[in-house]
Request: fold
Amino acid sequence: MSATIWRRVLAFEIDILLLTLIWLMTLSVGIFAVWIGLNVAGYDAPSYDLISMLLFPFGLVSPVVFLAYFIGFSSYRGQTPGKAIMRIRIVSMTGKNVTLSMIIVRTLGYFISGVFFGVGFLMALVTRRRRSLHDFLADTYVVGV
Reply:
């Protein structure tokens, strides 16, 4: 049986909350490390521009962490932590476990689903088995466990 839209939305929000917490913790460590490094190097009051430049690589890593989170967790039992909490999982259209390639396509499809004001996500409101655009791209759907 297909998972309800609300369970899917809540699962995604839980995942985004977890990713935000991870991001904030690593950002805090990064800021602290830059601050310590600048003090050791003799900068008494480093400029905002200098700190921003030193933290720039952190911003480049954020999309990689997003992809690693969703691909890594989803490829194991078809569930992210949010999906596990909401008791839903991703399966192939044949009802079998998903493959790594399906998960990669599906995760990259999140970006495509969100491009035009989230219309790709909203497709789940009107499609059979409540499939979003990224589900169609990866030949998957989400079921209740």
